[in-house]
Structures are given as C-alpha cells and as structure tokens.
Design goal:
2 copies of one chain form a homodimer. Chain A has about 190 residues and is an all-alpha fold. Helix content of chain A is about 75%, strand content about 0%. In chain A, helix 1 crosses helix 6, helix 5 runs antiparallel to helix 10 and helix 9 runs antiparallel to helix 10. Chain A is elongated and about 60 Å long. Chains A and B meet through helix 7, helix 9 and helix 10 of A and helix 7, helix 9 and helix 10 of B. The first copy, chain A, binds a DNA duplex (30 and 30 nucleotides) through helix 1, helix 2 and helix 3.
Chain lengths: ~190, ~190
DNA sequence: CAAAATATGGAGGTCGTCTCCATTTGTCAA
DNA sequence: TTGACAAATGGAGACGACCTCCATATTTTG
C-alpha cells in the first residue's frame, strides 16, 4: 500500500524524538497551549523538520495513535491465546478502559485531534477493529454471544468512551458502558 | 445562574440571523472551509458583531447545540407521557439515531467543534441527560430495567454514536449500539 | 424630541503557521 | 580515507486568519 522508502539515519532519529516528545506532551495535556513551532524546539528539532515529518498536528496524532493501536492489538492477541473467548473479550474491553484511564491526557488529546478527520481515526483503528472482530467471532463460535450485532457497534461504544473523557464520573460510566455492551452481547434479543 | 440581560431589538435580530446561518452552514458541512470573518459576512453581519455574540466557533456550536437539545427533550417528554416506560426509552433512543441520521452534517460539525471543550458539551447536554435519567428511572420503577447502571453510561454510548459520524456503515452500527444498550439494560447482569 | 444607552461593522494590529533554501550531515563507491 | 552526491536540517520571514477597537449608527428612555 505505502511503499515506505528507507529513512536516513538522522531522519529516523529526529522522527523518533518527535514522536517521543509528542507522547509526553499529549499525556501531560499541554499540547494545545503550545505553538507548533515551539513544539519542534521542545523536541530539539527545527520547524522545517517538524513539518517535513508531520505536516499537521493531526498527522502527528495519527502517528502516535498507531503506536497505541499496535500495543492494544498485541494485548488482544495475548488474551485470545490464553483465555476462553468470552473471558478474553471481557478482559480486553475492561483492559482498554484501564489503559485509557491510565493515560487520560493522551486519550483526550488524541480524541480531540482526530475529531475532524475521524475518517483517519477509522483508518488507523482498522487493526483494532479487526482484533475486536476476532474476539467476538470466537465468542460467537462458542455460542456465548449473539451473532446479529457486529464489532462496529462495539467500536462505536468504545469511541464514545474515549471521546467523553471529561465527564466528571468518567471511570464509573465507562465501566457501565462496557457492562451494558457485554450483557447486551450475551442477551438473545 | 446566568442573569440574561434583555437584548436590544436589533441585537436580537442579528443573533437570530447568526444562529440560522450557522445551522444552515453546519448542516451543509461547509463550516470549516469558511474563514470566521466570512461567516459573519454570510450572515449579513460585521465581524465585530459576530465576535460580540459568539466569541469563538465553539461558542456558536454550543448555542446551536442548545437548540437541538431542547428539541430532543421535548420529544422525550412527549414519549414519556404517551408510552409505557420501556417503550418510551427505546423509542427515544431510536429516535435520536433517526434525528442524527437526518442531520448528519450538523451532527458531525457539532461533534467536531465540541471535541475540545467536551466539558461544555457535557454542560449543554445536562438537560438531555436529565431526560434520559427520567426515562430510565421510570423503566426501573416498572421493574423492566436493571438499576445498577446509570444514565451516564447511556449518554456515553450516545456520545460515541455522535462522534463516529463518518464510519462507513454508521447507521447500522448506531442501531447496533442502541440494541446492545437496550438489551444490556434489560439483562440482569 | 433630546440625551443616554446600546449595538454595529470593518480597518488594521497581532501572532501562529508554514515555506523556502543556504547549509549541514549521512551514504556510498572508488 | 576521501570525494561527490543525495538527503535532511533549521530558522528567517512571508502570509493569512483571528480578533480588537472605536467612530458611527440605531434603539430606548425620560
């Protein structure tokens, strides 16, 4: 799809530095108080370099998001390999909430930055969606989950949890959504 | 809370014009291609006037959102008065999806604009949340819905539906979320 | 109707964004 | 190692959107 041309050594290094700094600043929640130029300086990089690697704030967010998705997918695979389907699904969804809770700033920043281009978000989370699809398919096969509601609906609910990150009682409500979704999946309509 | 001082006649008129134009442009999806200054001109208003009424794009979105919320709340009240609790709840949630579907551009624009200040969103949708809370409370009283998951979780799921407005299969997935939520609410855990 | 209060609009200052290119750094072949 | 070529760098400055400010216009009040 994308013929990634090999990056020169220093370019690679700068790119990494930018991503690392981004993750840091995102999580600290200070990204929007920062001029984009200053962000470059903070990462020890010139303005031009920043723009060559990430033409927009959104592009930067997308790259960071990719990393997160990869982590979560690994997690899903691990769970699926070690637990019965129903438990794996539940553990994964609960785990996602834990993860978001542990990185609130990051979650909030990403949600905000990708609000426009949520097409990009959908693109970027395709892998994640596949993981959820697999988890659900396995549970369906075990006969413990209905087969008339697909993974997209679950993704949407997750999206809601991520997007609503400043509700005063976020954690409890997020757990509530997961509970509803899981019980709704088990229900026979 | 807010001691709304009475607005002068012409001010009222301009304000209305701005809101009407906003609704139009939002729904057409062209808001982000427009300089804020030009939006003012489009509404037949000077830049200064626009800024006095709505200091930011977000403030404008919030005002439009208020109108939407009011409409939906009316709808909720009507349903609650005419249907058994469980049906009223279901009809309301399904109805919201219909409404969003019929005004995709508006929904998307609002979701995008309020991504940052989703605290403002929470603020603005307090009335909506109250309506959902009432619908659920009535259903709980009828003994047809569990009482250990509160309205906040449902709001979060709805938020997800609104925020994910450009998923390719939005409508089906949104319906799926509602199904999961409703069945999850009926389930006894 | 005059005066006071309120609202208007758009010219121009401010400030973040992004481009451009002279310079530096990395790579590779001889 | 060295020279030559390609790739990458950074930051000065042009650009353009946002927002303020106030002389003017409109509404309201006494």
């Amino acid at each position: 799809m994308t013929a990634d041309k090999p990056l020169r050594a220093d370019a690679q290094r700068k790119r990494e530095a930018l991503l690392a700094t981004a993750r840091e600043v995102f999580d600290a929640g200070g990204f929007f108080d920062l001029r984009f130029d200053d962000f470059a300086r903070l990462a020890g990089v010139g303005t031009g370099t920043l723009y060559r690697h990430f033409p927009t704030r959104e592009a930067l967010a997308e790259a960071v998001y990719h990393g997160e998705v990869a982590t979560l997918c690994d997690c899903a695979r691990r769970l699926q390999a070690t637990l019965p389907a129903a438990e794996a699904l539940a553990a994964f969804l609960r785990g996602m909430v834990d993860h978001m809770d542990a990185h609130q700033g990051l979650a909030r920043t990403l949600a905000t930055l990708m609000a426009d281009r949520s097409s990009a978000l959908a693109e970027g989370s395709r892998a994640l969606e596949q993981a959820v699809t697999d988890l659900i398919a396995a549970a369906v096969k075990d006969g413990v989950v209905r087969d008339d509601v697909d993974a997209g609906a679950v993704m949407m609910a997750l999206h809601g949890i991520g997007a609503a990150h400043d509700r005063p009682d976020w954690r409890a409500e997020a757990d509530g959504v997961i509970t509803l979704v899981l019980d709704g999946l088990v229900s026979r309509g």
